[in-house]
Structure formats: C-alpha cells, structure tokens
Amino acid sequence: KKKGVQEIKKTLLLFSAKIQSTFYHKVCDRPLVSSLPPSSFRSSSQLSISHGPVFAKVNRREGAGGWSPLISDRYQWLEVDLGRRTQITAVATQGRYGSSDWLTAYLLMFSDTGHNWRQHRQEDSLGAFPGNSNADTVVQYKLEQPVIARYLRLIPLDWNPTGRIGLRLEIYGCRYTSDVANFDGSSSLVYRLSVRPSWMTTEIISLKFKTLKNSGTLLHAEGLRDHSLTLVLEKGKLLLYHQQGVSSPSGGQLLVSLGSLLDDQHWHHVKLERLSTHLNLTVDKNTHTHLRIMYIILLDYNFYSTNGNVTFSCAEPVSVAVTFTDSHSFLQLPSLTSWSSGVAAVALQFRTWNKVGLLLTFDLPQQDGTVLLYLSEARLRLQISKAGSGLNDGQWHSVELNFRQDHLSITVDKDEGATAHTIIPLPLTAHSQLFFGGCPAQTSSQDCRNPFKAFQGCMRRLTLDDQTVDLISVQQRLLGNYSHLQIDMCGIVDRCSPSHCEHGGRCTQSWSTFHCNCSNSGYRGATCHSSTYEQSCEVYKHKGNTSGHYYIDVDGSGPVKPQLIYCNMTEDRTWTVIQHNNTELTRVQSSPERNQHFAHFDYSSEEEQLVTIIGQSEHCEQELSYHCRKSRLLNTLEGSPFSWWVGGPGSGQVHTYWGGALPGSRQCACGLEDRCLDPSHYCNCDADYDQWTDDSGLLTHKDTLPVRSLVLGDIQRPGSEAAYRVGPLRCHGDENFWNAAFFDKETSYLHFPTFHGELNADISFLFKTTSSSGVFLENLGIKDFIRIELSSSSEVVFSFDVGNGPLDVRVQTDLPLNDNRWHSVRAERNVKEASLRVDDFPPATQEAPADGLIHLQLNSQLFIGGTASRQKGFLGCIRSLQLNGITLDLEERAMITPGVRPGCPGHCSSYGLLCQNQGRCVEKANGFSCDCGQSAFSGAFCHEEVSASFKSTTSVTYILKERYEPSRNSSALPSFIYSDITLRAENVSLSFRTSQTPALLLHVNSFYREYLTLLINKHDELELRYKLHSSRDVEVLSSTVGTLADGRLHTVTIRRLADTVSVQVNTHNTYFTLCHTYQESDGSDAELAGLTSLGFTGCLSGVRFNSISPLKAALHHPDSSVIVTGPLVQSSCGSSSPVSPYPAETTHSLSGTRMDPGQPLVNTIRSDSALIGGVIAVVIFVTVSALVIMARFICSRKETYRNQEVKAAQPEDGHEFPFSSQADSPSAPNENQKEYFI
Fold first, then answer.
1. Can you tell me whether residue 23 is helix, strand or coil?
2. Does 1120 lie in the same domain as 1067?
3. What does DSSP assign to residue 561?
4. d(CA 454, CA 436)
C-alpha cells in the first residue's frame, strides 16, 4: 500500500466542474445508429443473412426488416460499436418490420472495450427496460443519467409470445471528449501553484478513474498551515485522510470511507468539494459530508509537471469475467492434452459476498477420489481428505479399525488423516456383540458398558470385514437390534447458521441446541440479548449503590454499547458525570501571530449515548468559565462577538451567550443580573480592565449541550491574558426510570402501537399494588400472543404463544407482592428460551422447542394495565416500562386516558431502608432522598462517616442553646432544641482511634455543674463518669474491655433510660444501674478541670448525642452554635483500615481568579462529593469539644453491675433502650445551658 503522491497503475480522466456542466446542459440527443457502417454491428446469432444485425436500424426496411437471432432465448444479444466514447442519453426500440416479432423487455450493457460489460441500472433497480407492444411503434427510453461508453449491448429478456425476437434500434447522444492520463504505478502528475490563492468559499476537484488494482493513491492536495488531504483507494474503497504537519506512515486522520468494488475497470466519478468548512466527497451517486476542514486550498493550480512514466492516452487491458448468478450456474471446461504427463496448473481470481460456495471441482479417477476447492466461512479450503482433528464440525469423517491378532490400527479420514497403532490382545469371537452409539436401557453390565454420553449424530457406510451392513434389514428388525434411531436419513441441523447470538456473542452448538458465549460482551441471557448493566446512574442508586464508576447501557438491549461513566450519588441528587479531554482551567497566552484560539472537546461517551443521557435526564448542566485580563469576551450587543462556543447534538450550533445567561441573549451572567463591572457592557471581561476578572456560570439548556468546541478571539493584543474552563457534562434525574401511571379502575388501560419482538423480546417494569391479581401487559395476534400478569399475591406469570402452543413461565415468591411496595419484573423471550425474574427471587426458565416456530407475530394494539376485553385489569402503579430497551411514555398517555393518572408517589415504603444511621427518607415527586440532618453520617444514604483527626491544642464547642434571660422571648428558640432536652434518657455513640492513655473522649456539662465524661483511663479501659446532680457524688462506670489505646478503630454506644445504663464497646455490652449518693460539699470542679485538660490525640468519628451530631455540625455546617479553636479539617481516619491521619493537602490556583473550592483536583473525576478517586485532599482534625444537654436526675437506687456479651440476655428488670430523637418531656426547663466538650 503506497501513500503520498505515489500513484497506482490506473487511468485517470480529469475534467473541471465547468466543463462537466457544459456537457450536461448542451443538447445531446442526436441519432447515432443510422450513420454507422455495417462493421459496427454484431450479434450472438442470426436467423438468416437477411435477419443480420446490420439491418437493426429504426424505421429501416432493408433485409428482413430487422434483426432476429437463430434461437429466441435469453442468451442472445445485439451489439453496436459507436466508434469512440460517446455520451448516450436515450435508447429507442422497434419490432421487425412486417412481422409479429418484437421485444417486451430487455437489458442494456455498456463497455469501453467490447469486453468487461457493465449492466446499466435505473436507480439501482434490476435494470429491465420496457419494450414494445407491436412491430411498428418506436418506444424511446431516456436514461436518467447519461452513460459514457463506446459499445452498447442489448440483451432480450421477453418478447411477443406468438412471435420471436425481432429488433430495430436507435441510440441517442453526442460526442464526448476528455483528456486522459495513464499511470503505471510509479508515476504521478503534479500541479503546483506559482501564486498562493486567497481564501475561497467554494473549491472543487472532480475526476473519473478506472483501475484493476484495488489499492493506491489517487489525489494528494496541500493547503495552508501544512494541512493536506489524501484520497486513497484501499481494497476497492475510497478513503479520505486529513493531516496537519509532517506526513506520517499512518496517513493522518481518516475522515470518510466511501464506495465499494471500485477496482472493476469501469469509470467512477469522484468529486471533492469544500463549501466553507464543510467538505463533501462524492463517489458516483453517494455523497458524504464532513465538517470542520480548515485551510485547505484545492484549486487555482496554474503549473503542472509529471513524474515517471505518465502517458496521455488510455491503455485498455482486456479482462474477461464470468458471473455465476444463482444456484444453477456452472462453467464446464475440457482439460488439456498436456495434463497426461502429470503436470498441470490451475489459477483463478474470484470475488463474492457469500461465505460459502464451490469454486472448482474435478475427479481423480485413478484414486477414486475428488478434489474440491471451496469457500467455507469465508476461508478457502482444498479438500482431498480430512485430518483427524475438529471432528465435531458437522462434516462426514471416516474411521477404520483393523484387527490383526495382537495388533490394532485406527485410521481417521483415510490416508490424509491420523493413523495410530498399538498392540492389544483382542479376544473377539463369533458371538461378540458390537454396539454403536450407546447401550440398551435393559442389559447386564457384562454385555455393554458406556462410561460416556450416548452418541448423537449420523452414521453411514457401516462395514464389517469390508462387507456393508444392510441398514434396511436392521430397520425391518431382520438383523440386530436398535432403539430410538431414524434410519435412512441424517437429520443434522446447523443451528448457528444464521447465528441468533447478539451483541458479538459467539455461537457454538451441539446436536440438539446452540449456545451463546456472552463473555466480555456486556450482555447476558441465552442469546446475549439483555444488558448486564443498568441504564442510568439513577437505577444504580436505587439499588443501594454509592458513588463510583459504573457501566451504563442507555438503550438496554439496543445497539449502543455500554460505557464506563462516573455516578455521583449525593444526598439530594444523583449526578451522571461525563468527562471530556480537557476539564482543567486552561491558560491562553497572548500571541500576535494568531487571532483566535480553538479548543475542541472529545467526550468519553459515544454520540448516541451522549444524546440519550441528555434527553432522558431531568436537568443537565455544564460549567463555562472565562477568566480574563485585558481580553474581551462578547464585546457589545451590536458588534460581532470576539468569542463563541459550539454545542448541542450532532455537530452542534454556534452560541454567543455565556454561562449563567439565557440562549440568544449575547450576555454573561452578570449582564442578566445587572451586576457587571462596567454597566455599559454585559460581561465583566468586556470592560477590558487591566486586572483579573471572570465571567462564569452554568449552561443549563439541554438542547445546547454538550459544549463541543470553543473559539476565543481577543487574545492577540499585548498584555492580554485569559483562561477558560469547560467542566464535565453533569446530568441528574432519569425521566424514563420514574415514568409511571396509576390505574384506579379495573376497566382502565393504556394502549400503544403493536409490539414488534419477533425473535427477541425483553420487557421490564416496576409495579406496586394492594390487589392480588391483574394483567400488567397484553398484546394479541391472530394466534400468537404475549401477556404478563399477577395471578396471585405471590405469583407472576409470563405467557406467550408463537405457534407452538401456549407456554407459561411462573415465578412464585416467598413474600407477598401486593404490599404496596415497588417490585421489579423482567421477562425475556427469544428463539432459545423464555425467562422471568421478579425482584431478586430465583428466575424461572422454559426452553423453546428445538425445532418449533420462532417468530412472534402480533398485530393488535399493546395494552398496558388491562386487556382488550376489559377483564382482569390491574389496580396500582406501573413504572419504567421498557420493551426492547425503549421506554413507553406512560405519563403522556395517562394524561388523556380516563381511569389512569400520570405519576405515582410513595417511594419511601420501598426505598426507605436504604437510609442508614438514623437517616430519614424524604418523599420526592420522582424518587426519594435521605435526610441526614439528624444523623452523624453523611452521603446519599447517610452511610459516610464524618471523621476528624485530633490534637490536644484544638477544640470545638457546640452550644445547644443560650442561657435563659427573662427579657428574651423563649418562643423564638428553635423547636429542635426543646426536642433534645430530656430528663430521662440519652443516646451517645462515637468511634475512636488513639494510642494515648489516659485520654478524654467526650465531656458533657451544664451550668448546674452536672456532667458526663467518657474517657480511657490509665488502665487502658473505657470509663464513663456521671454526675447527674450538683449535690450527688460522681458515679464511675468502668467497662471490662481493655487495650483500647491500640491505634485501632473502636465503637462505643451509650444508652441511658432512667437509672439503667448500657455501655457497648465494639461487640461487648456492659449494663449499670445508677444510685443515690449525696455529698455535703462538691469538690468535683477541680477534678473536672483535670479531666478536660487531658485532651485527646487521635481520631473521632460518627459522634452523636441523641439527634445532635456535634462533629458533623462543626465540619459541614459551622454556625453560631459551633465555636472552633485551632485548625479543623475532615479526615478519613474513621475508616476501618488504618490510614495516615495527616496527609498532605494539595491545591491549585490561578492568580487573580476566583477558584471554586468545591472542585476536585486535576485529572480526577469531578463531583459534589468530598472524596473521589485515589488521591484525596484531606484536612487535619484536632481536638474537638462539644456541648450537649444533661438534665438533673435524682437517683434513688443503689448501683449494680452486670456484664454481658452482645448476645446475652437483657437485664433482669427487662429494661430496653428504644431511644429516639424526640423529647420525653416537652416542658423541659429553658434556663439550663448545656455544653458538649469532646
């Protein structure tokens, strides 16, 4: 394969568009046959001399009045030589004068050489032309496109049934003149420009070529800035390459591939046309358009030279081909007499679209064999005999066993096969029994043993001692015995041709069935029809998945391949994040050499997937930011914009508004909000200040997304500086997943067009109901049907009939399905089996008959939620109904259907369990969210621990409420404060990791000198200190769990109800009972100060006191209730695996620009989550203190201790700890200020 300007051996006919236009518009309908000499006419045969082809001229009566062949059949023809290449525009026919002989249909063939004919087709039809209805009328047929040729051949197809073939002919056209150049494979014709032309809007190069070679370079054109186009012929197709810079072996970027079978030695028309930035390539009648081709100069060449052997005449090599049109085609040739010497050679060339076909066969009489040269699976094979491998290929193979005393030989496929020899004693007798294929069902182990599966297949030519077994006698039970045989036939079937395996699945087969290997295809099922992956991030979230990379298959079982996409699950939304090749803030330096900066963005998703995601999302957005210093953006409303961007589906459209503004406004966000630096402009950057500023915002109109390219114009002035950022495409919401309808009457239903799933049908949906039965879906045909219904409160039935009789697939569930919760149903039917899956219960499968009917033929409307008979209707909700990956719009149809309402609320009953760690499920119109406000955790499901690393020099104080002041209106206090004031109970939980002992974990106190302290004492044990009244002694409760300061993560849960306290450390429970012990004087203040001065060095995570999460409030929601002393940053030290509590923080900034601190680091997937990917910017957590509420409590019982493991029984008095965030006493005093100190 040769690129560049090296040419292949072919003939090129060059002409300009102007000359071509002149030819097509001038009159070209002159009669051509009447003036031709007799030597210009030839025919396949003639009835007599007076019926010869020379008399076949319209309206002439010489001879017998026209041409008639000796035999009237479809192998006859009449040929006319026009003497030179001519433009032919029409053909006229007439019957033979004074006879009943005329044609009713014919074919036209054209050639330049009298060989290598090409059939003329009108609009790619079969090419038959209508003829005459009598012998006198002239019927003219004008060609839709003129044909340029020298020879014309007419082939009769049909004629008057009461006569024979008779013809007089006329051809209309005009002289055709063109320049030609002939290339020998190492020559070229080079045009050079003496003066570079200026930029032109339209440029055209057109040419015609013909060749017998299938590869080589036709054209190489160079333009400005080292841009070039190369037109290459590869394997009979034309490929157009674009390249910038030094040529490389790869040939540049492939723009388009067009045409096929262009190496047929016929003329093919090629036109290369540039219209502004659009580039059109036309090959014969096919045109392909490519966009964004810049700087290519194609025309205005005014000097040329030749390299190598270029001749300006058309060499016409003769190449005669033969076409085998159908299964009856053959060609018989005699052999050569010289072959008797034993030396022979046969060679041929062929081309075909078929994978299978016989090319050549001949017998070997002396060897009683046959030679076959044939195609099998598009591979050329020569078979004389087969080798002894791959014997399960469906072909006949021979096996011979020869026994000679103690010698055994086995031969597979005779001489060319495998032969093995061994010495084995073989005590065969005249009474020995031979079993072929298997053993009888009732026989002793002495007669027949079969450790393998029985043989399934065909056998023939069974011989014993070279005597053929008479199988007909076996069939008549005159010889031997048999069972379950079909004699006198071979019933082998190729079940992989054609293959029913989809999406690249590999087909293999056994005797009775086929199998599809779906490995690495991304699809599953018997025919690799159903996608392994979900169709959106929303679906993944509602299966309990957290943020991460997931394969998304937007069209399910459709043709679009799955692609890896990042899903960011936040507390309130599920974001689909699609990256492109440059999401970083990119700086643009001023350059006087260029007026504009171009940026093109290639997305990680394919176009079909990109368009589908945007279309089915509720909202999409993309950040568009421009940071500038003396670099204008849009200028004024009246002037031309300096910069613009291209966005939207396909190639996109040009847009001149900026992020945060409205489409078509020619403004930035500041102009829309009337806050620009210069009120006379609509963008900050248009003020043209010598200081850094920016215009940033979100593009939110889905029909303009994604951003595909960006052009920045004001960058050439001295001192101009700019930077831009086009963020990833982010979308949330899945309108398909939440598309639902509510059926409130048994007689109501929705109807849709007929479902077409002839060979493969997959149906999936979600439903919820309180009814015990109802039809979800039904579609009928004349005999065929398909139906899915809830037959009982615990059974779903998938029924269908494809002509083999009704078949039911049933799934029985262990739990009721009419519990008003969402349940999923997925049914699939293909040529191999039918399957039904309900929720996560084991699926049910029914195999299809091996040789039954396979096409599902339906013709009525598709009914959803009911049937045509209005019986057994469904009551409840159906959601996300998809048929073969296409979502039906239930809501749109429900809006106009009585008895059906669009939408279906109530999702927390199904998805509420996904909210963890006291997270609260919140209903939304489309789905749900987890409210983590009263949880110590965060994330989409309140599953992410909030952790901090501590040093002894840092504290955080959480003030529950201010001290009571009589002048202040207490009713103004938030209601949640009262809900957390409790006189009877508290619920405390936290996790920690430390190597310090002693160490203070948690301290709670009040202005009444009440407190609770949780610490690790000097014995490395957990110690809880209660002081519930200022006049009572401190009560010390110690857990027997030791070795807590080991650097590992430990979890502590403290629950108190009245006087009973439970302390759980990891999996160990300890129960305590508080007592009444009073003291005269309180000296605990000094002790308290000593404890709080201990501080804490290590990690705390998931700190919660009743409904308050002080650590989470300090990190995520700092306000007046939180006082932080020292640096405080979030950490992942609360994870179960040890991590460094103080990783380095990395930041990136641009001088004078406003950077979004919420954006992640360079080269990471961006999202709203704090943690993404491997490298994380982590903040340092140090000692935290928190204020919590404690209320006075009078203890009247003595202290008791009972230590038990988690699985042990509850305390003897049966106390349980059903704590909630609600107050036990709504009338708690409000003058008592409490503090948490951690």
1. helix
2. yes
3. P
4. 9
Residue partners of 56: CB distance under 8 A and separation at least 6 = 41, 66, 67, 78, 167, 168, 169
Low-confidence ranges of the chain (pLDDT < 50): 1-24, 124-125, 249, 294-303, 330-331, 338-339, 341-345, 359, 362, 364-371, 373, 375, 378-382, 384-389, 424-428, 445, 962-982, 1079-1082, 1137-1237
Farthest-apart Cα atoms in the chain, separation: 150
Tell me the pairing of strands 139-159 and 369-376: unpaired
Distance between alpha carbon 735 and the CA centroid of its chain, in Å?
19
CA distance 70 to 44: 9
Is 306 inside any structural domain?
no
Q: What is the DSSP string of 71-122?
A: S-STT--EEEEEEEEEEEEEEEEEPPTTSS--EEEEEEEEESSSSS-EE--S
Q: Quick check: is 1155 in a domain?
A: no
pTM of the model: 0.55
Same structural domain for residues 457 and 356? yes
CB 536 within 8 A of CB 551: no
The domain boundary residue, chosen from 1096, 1130, 1164: 1130
Whether 775 and 874 have beta carbons less than 8 Å apart is answered as yes
Q: Decide the pairing of beta strands 237-244 and 399-404.
A: unpaired
**Nearest of 852, 882, 859 to residue 776 by alpha carbon:** 882
Last residue of a domain, one of 175, 203, 222: 175
Say if residues 1034 and 1025 touch (Cβ distance below 8 Å).
yes
Has residue 66 been placed in a domain?
yes
Helices within 984-1142 (DSSP H only): 1084-1092, 1110-1116
Contact 699, 632 (CB under 8 A): no
Per-position DSSP letters for 355-411, written without gaps between them: S-EEEEEEEEGGGTEEEEEEEETTEEEEESS--SS-TTSSS---EEEEEETTEEEEE
pLDDT of residue 491: 63
* Pair (856, 884) in one structural domain: yes
Please report, for the domain that includes residue 745, its CATH number.
2.60.120.200
Position of tokens 């061994």?
A: 422
In whole angstroms, give the CA distance from residue 818 to residue 810: 17
Q: 105 is in which domain, residue-wise?
A: 30-175
pLDDT, tens only, 623-681: 999 999 988 888 765 678 889 999 988 888 999 899 999 998 888 999 888 899 988 88
CB atoms within 10 A of CB 289: 13
1157: in domain: no
Q: What angle do CA 1054, 1060, 1066 make, to 5 degrees?
A: 30
Token pair in block for residue 729: 């495409």
Computed on alpha carbons and rounded to an integer, the radius of gyration of the chain in Å comes to 44
Residues 762 and 826 in one domain: yes
The reported pLDDT for the residue numbered 972 is: 38
**Residue whose entry in the numeric block shows the structure tokens 């990471």:** 1164
Give kind and range of the element (H or E) at residue 270.
strand 268-275
Reported as half-sphere exposure (CB side, CA atoms, 13 A), residue 200 has a value of 13
Number of domains in the chain: 6
Q: What is the pLDDT of residues 392-451, one digit of tens each?
A: 676 667 777 665 655 656 676 675 555 556 554 444 455 666 777 677 776 554 556 655
Pair (283, 332) in one structural domain: no
